[in-house]
Amino acid sequence: QGSKGILERLDAGEVVVGDGGYVMQLERRGYVKAGHWTPESAVEHPEAVRQLHREFLRAGADVMQTFTFYCSEDKLELSGNVKTISGAQINDAACNLAREVADEGGALVAGGVSQTPCYVLSHNETEVKAIFKKQMDDFLKKDIDFLVVEYFEHVEEAVWAVEVLKTSGKTVAATLCIAPQGDMHGVPPGECAVRLVRAGADIVGINCHLDPLTCVQTVKLMKEGLEKAGLKAHLMIQPLGFHTPECNLGGYVSLPEFPFALETRAMTRWDIHKYAREAYNAGIRYIGGCCGFEPYHIRAIAEELAAERGFLPPASEKHGLWGAALEMHTKPWVRARARREYWENLLPASGRPKCPSMATPANDGLTEK
Amino acid sequence: QGSKGILERLDAGEVVVGDGGYVMQLERRGYVKAGHWTPESAVEHPEAVRQLHREFLRAGADVMQTFTFYCSEDKLELSGNVKTISGAQINDAACNLAREVADEGGALVAGGVSQTPCYVLSHNETEVKAIFKKQMDDFLKKDIDFLVVEYFEHVEEAVWAVEVLKTSGKTVAATLCIAPQGDMHGVPPGECAVRLVRAGADIVGINCHLDPLTCVQTVKLMKEGLEKAGLKAHLMIQPLGFHTPECNLGGYVSLPEFPFALETRAMTRWDIHKYAREAYNAGIRYIGGCCGFEPYHIRAIAEELAAERGFLPPASEKHGLWGAALEMHTKPWVRARARREYWENLLPASGRPKCPSMATPANDGLTEK
Amino acid sequence: QGSKGILERLDAGEVVVGDGGYVMQLERRGYVKAGHWTPESAVEHPEAVRQLHREFLRAGADVMQTFTFYCSEDKLELSGNVKTISGAQINDAACNLAREVADEGGALVAGGVSQTPCYVLSHNETEVKAIFKKQMDDFLKKDIDFLVVEYFEHVEEAVWAVEVLKTSGKTVAATLCIAPQGDMHGVPPGECAVRLVRAGADIVGINCHLDPLTCVQTVKLMKEGLEKAGLKAHLMIQPLGFHTPECNLGGYVSLPEFPFALETRAMTRWDIHKYAREAYNAGIRYIGGCCGFEPYHIRAIAEELAAERGFLPPASEKHGLWGAALEMHTKPWVRARARREYWENLLPASGRPKCPSMATPANDGLTEK
Amino acid sequence: QGSKGILERLDAGEVVVGDGGYVMQLERRGYVKAGHWTPESAVEHPEAVRQLHREFLRAGADVMQTFTFYCSEDKLELSGNVKTISGAQINDAACNLAREVADEGGALVAGGVSQTPCYVLSHNETEVKAIFKKQMDDFLKKDIDFLVVEYFEHVEEAVWAVEVLKTSGKTVAATLCIAPQGDMHGVPPGECAVRLVRAGADIVGINCHLDPLTCVQTVKLMKEGLEKAGLKAHLMIQPLGFHTPECNLGGYVSLPEFPFALETRAMTRWDIHKYAREAYNAGIRYIGGCCGFEPYHIRAIAEELAAERGFLPPASEKHGLWGAALEMHTKPWVRARARREYWENLLPASGRPKCPSMATPANDGLTEK
User: Residue C290 in contact with residue C21, Cβ under 8 Å?
Assistant: First the structure.
């Protein structure tokens, strides 16, 4: 399994399970600063990053994404919370960590680039492309399997990133963090997908910003766009692990709870089962998560699709399917929960009767169009 | 700081920050099986346990509790999911891990024992005490600083445990997982505290089963009981990190969401600030958490009480107090959240409009009285 | 049936169905001014008051209370919205209307007095009693069957009212609008009941301010108090038709929704079935409603207790029991609702996802103690 | 004012306030049987119907609709709950009542016809038209001002009704109970409006089935359709007085709460203020309500648009604008509510923490397309 490339796997019809979100989970573990969201802990605290990689691997992830989010030189400089460590050092350390853990389980390593402040500030194609080129060069010094362009709100910038990264000769996956209504300039998902594939992306899809079922819907729109254009590409999805029914263009960043009170919106593992099935049914074969996805959420993807994949992930040794291990609980009413129907139909209470169930998102960039 | 014992610290009026919950967090990371809740991963996957210890230490914890929950021989045998590893092996490994990490930051190591199936099944004092003795002997072979008797629903069994553990000559802390109404036999908290102190406990309090503010209320009742009896003891609290307004005697085990859909009940870091202040104001000085407490919740205790303690924890290097680091966010409406009033007054939405805000607990053992 | 007095009926073990709330319902119909809550429309718009009486009668009410709430001279003067009509005129008109409708269906007429501003302002027994005497004299000029002392927050004032009204020789019922914690001076319900009965009340209980199940609980406490004191009296209840789980001493007046946004708290007819059964099981035999009780809520009492009473009310000709008449609906999913289990188990949605399910009551007079 | 016809008023740019819902309000008052929803009480209990007319008039309604809902011969026969009263008798009595009350306040009388079971069962234009003709002939024997075609789920049937009613020479208004998605055959609102106007309707719009803001949206789509077709007509709206955010084609009939647990969805008067303003801003000038609209909701329309109309309705003598009359309340926290901002911003709690905020509608006829 370990020796096959990402396209080989997808071409063969395999389900590829992605990993979960690093920045938000490492923020909760004490290694990432919210607001900055930069990955300097790959250098400062490699054991913490390594452990999270390992948990995702153990949960069933087939890909280790390098912990290099927002690791472009312009972003690091603007952010200002990393003074003595260079982007190149972080990229180097992050590649090492991803490789080390990937090799423990036959997983692939994907080097990731994300949107740059430079795009919004300068809108200068040459400058923006130079930033992507620099980070790509860092990756190409290391042993990585493919590249991921992710977390782009404007398809134009993502296209520029794909154009740069394709010069590496590596497979390129590209995911936007956009809503079904389209990107921040109003380009609809179908057209976004077409532009990305025409720029050279082998795999396209959606990540972050919105909840799983909304993201599945957006990927479906991308698929339709590709079909209409007579194009082919593999589909990928790595959504939020939060319920965001109110969100629109701006995504969860517009929610009043972002980023320090999102707890009550968190997905249960059973929500993830539904998501994994929906994504699979929509024809998506690269299925992972982003912010809010903890290791047990990734395991839920792997467990839902165990029949399709032919095996359970290592971490399932510590998990009874659909709550089966509750059968040995001492309380009879807990034992009664050791079955799929119970968890599939449960409507969990928040324990917060003074809180509403839906919020009003902030101004969300609709006027940017 | 590292060389002072737990009583020395408490006698000096210091705030001692406890660590958070291991079993539930390690379940989500893929190393504990829900239903069994046994700590065999101390042997199987020491790196995962070590990392969680480190995160709690980094978040400000002054005590590393050994990961030995439910690690009595009778429980391990009943549970049946650990065939080739003995309880003694787990206790040994867990002590090593706690010690190793504690030494990285001047923390103390506490060996923990919890309630036994034997008590409910046999109600035989000799048999139950023999089980505690065996686990204590495991601890005494290692370098531990004090002992914790925790997660007891019946004060009688906790008293037996204290009586055994006091023979070690070590300081003993004892926390019950009971409601303000009393233990499962109806013994009220004040009387429970008296019995525990008379049995030799140096520190008494509450852990698990109910939410922070409810647990503070129960500890207050314990304090009143001690004062009426003319007894003195230090007070300790390690509550759930979940909102459980509906709970009664049975605690969160009776909630329909236990254990796989508790996400929406999770505390935010701001809820923890309130809790830490309430606990401090109630005169409690050993303040930690149990199930649901992740590293960032422990950090919130340490940040709320930073003035009283005189320092911030290491993990605060990655956290702006009260959201201060959001000031550099690109979206103006997120920057507007970089202030205490915003987070203190936020009523977070669940994003789940088809779910209720309160549940009906299952039969909760009231009839056991 | 019509010729039997209230005590005759209650002594015989009959269930007496009370009427519902006039002021709040007539406010919605356009005849009462919220804030003032005075009953001048008995003179200004008798047809509206007559019609509401008739609807309660038709719904099964055995008693027509005169529409004389807050109709003491001091209250009318303070209120200031009635310039050209005297309290005596209103009392006269209200008695006529109640009598006219009561005679259409064998019901009894009860003349009602309620708490006075004078009590709080002067706390002068002579003055307060003079006010009750004046209103009583108005009633005694008319053909009324018994007297009701209702909506008193302080038992002391209610006792004064009972003492005055007993001089009439009529049967006197007395209901307080207090919580299980006691009246506004902290007198517990049991003691309140004892004082009222010792003052001469033949029937005691609770009305308004809190939801049905809370009021049932308070009446139970009154009953216990009477039993302990070796006293006997009939029990009466006329609670709010709103859900008020957050309320304490101050009752629904303290809720942020009072008085113009209480809609979402309204009881369904099925909630009333539960209430009527609970009240009956608690030994209460005079069962009606107050603010929020519309005619169909009174019908629900009469339908729940139809077997005990031996007959259905006239308005049941327009109501299939437990939704039976839905059987002829054109939509199959509506037909499926023509059964008791459906309505008993329904948890109705608010359709308001941005609203909480519980509010924070305002300062509620706890400090008045 | 009383002598001007409906078109004269609308042509002059006046705001015409409609009345509220009769069947659901009279069900609660004990005079209509849910499931059947037929108007026989116009004959059986004229005083109850007269009183409700009067309350709407007093609240500001400029039109009294005859209480003749579902009063076609085929519907009455199918319904089966009216054995001894003919449809002609009901129509006659209902016209008398509407006329009598309208004359008390210069209002107009509108004779209303609604959808027939015959349409769905036979789909025979001749038969269906004969039914409308019969009811129209009943109306033409009486003194009515104009005709209303309302509560039609299929525009085709509504067109047939308009075609029949236009033969009377009277002004005809036509409102469908459809969603923004279109009628039950999938005809979009814009096209529905065009067909109705081409059939002869002078006024078109929406009534019932969905909440006010959704209905405003649907009327806007009708307006756009008319503009595109170069047609002109006055716009009318009489929506539900309930929050129905989940509804789709089937409307509130599909909600689990229909028809006996809709209380928690009820609009406050402040919700109605918003609705009236939105409707006015959308260019709608005939603004009323349907099921769930009680007299105080109609008053809220008249109060919101008092400046535009130049006067307040009679019932405003018993209402302080925006809660102004609370200024004289005895509790200071209630006095603090005597202002517009308080009520406009209040998010009312349901008091029902075990209930969700949104429901799942039943199969709603989408497959009928």
Answer: yes
Q: How confident is the model at residue B70 (pLDDT cuts 50, 70, 90)?
A: confident
Number of Cα atoms under 13 Å in the Cβ half of residue D57: 23
pLDDT for position B1: 41
Query: Across the interface, do A354 and C358 touch by the CB < 8 Å criterion?
Result: yes
Do C357 and B353 lie within an 8 Å CB cutoff?
no
The rounded percent of chain B whose pLDDT value lies above 70 is 97
Please count the residues of chain C: 369
Q: Pick the residue of B41, B249, B260, B268 with the most A CBs within 10 A to test the interface with A by mutation.
A: B260
Q: Which residues of B touch A341 (CB under 8 A)?
A: none
Count the Cβ atoms, other than its own, within 10 Å of residue C12: 9
Q: Does C334 touch chain A (CB under 8 A)?
A: no
Q: What does the DSSP 8-state code read for residue D308?
A: H
Which among D30, D256, D349 has CB closest to C356? D349
CB atoms D348 and C343 under 8 Å: no
Q: Is C335 on the interface with D (CB under 8 A)?
A: no
CA atoms within 13 A on the CB side of C169: 1
Element spanning D174, H or E: strand D172-176
- Exposed / middle / buried, residue B8 (Cβ in 10 Å: 0-12, 13-18, 19+): exposed
Does B364 have pLDDT greater than 70? no
Q: Left, alpha or beta for B35 (phi > 0: left; psi -120 to 50: alpha)?
A: left
What ipTM was estimated for this complex?
A: 0.96
Both tokens assigned to A102? 């990937």
- Confirm or reject contact between D356 and chain B (CB < 8 A): yes
Q: D369 pLDDT exceeds 70?
A: no
Q: Has D208 been labeled as part of a binding site?
A: yes
Contacts with D359 from chain C: Cβ below 8 Å: 348-349, 351
Strands of chain B, DSSP E: 16-17, 63-65, 108-113, 146-152, 172-176, 203-207, 234-238, 286-287
Nearest to A352 by CA among C72, D349, C126, C165: D349
Q: Summarize pLDDT for B7-20 with one digit per residue, the tens.
A: 999 999 999 999 99
Closest to B190 measured CA to CA, from B147, B167, B219: B219
DSSP structure class, residue B267: P
CB-CB: which of B28, B269, B338 is closest to A296? B28
Amino acid at D164: V
Q: Is B118 annotated as a binding residue?
A: no
Q: C-alpha C42: how far from its chain's center?
A: 18
E strands, chain C, in order: 16-17, 63-65, 108-113, 146-152, 172-176, 203-207, 234-238, 286-287
Q: Is A80 on the interface with B (CB under 8 A)?
A: yes
Per-residue pLDDT at C211 = 97
Model pLDDT for residues B244-259, shown as the tens digit of each residue:
998 888 899 999 999 9
| C-beta separation of D90 from D22 below 8 A | no
- Which 3 state secondary structure label does DSSP give D175? strand
Give the lowest-confidence range in B302-306, C321-325, D161-165.
C321-325
Average pLDDT, chain A: 94
H or E stretch at A96: helix A87-105
For B109, counting Cβ atoms within 10 Å of its Cβ (0-12 exposed, 13-18 middle, 19+ buried), the class is buried
Contacts of D358 in chain B (CB under 8 A): 353-354
Say which range, B127-141, B171-185, C354-368, has the weakest mean pLDDT.
C354-368
Tokens standing for residue C91:
């009392």
- Let me know how long chain D is: 369
> Is C192 labelled as part of a ligand binding site?
no
Q: Residue ranges of the alpha helices (H) in A173-294? A: 189-199, 212-228, 269-281
Residue in D with minimal Cα distance to A358: D357
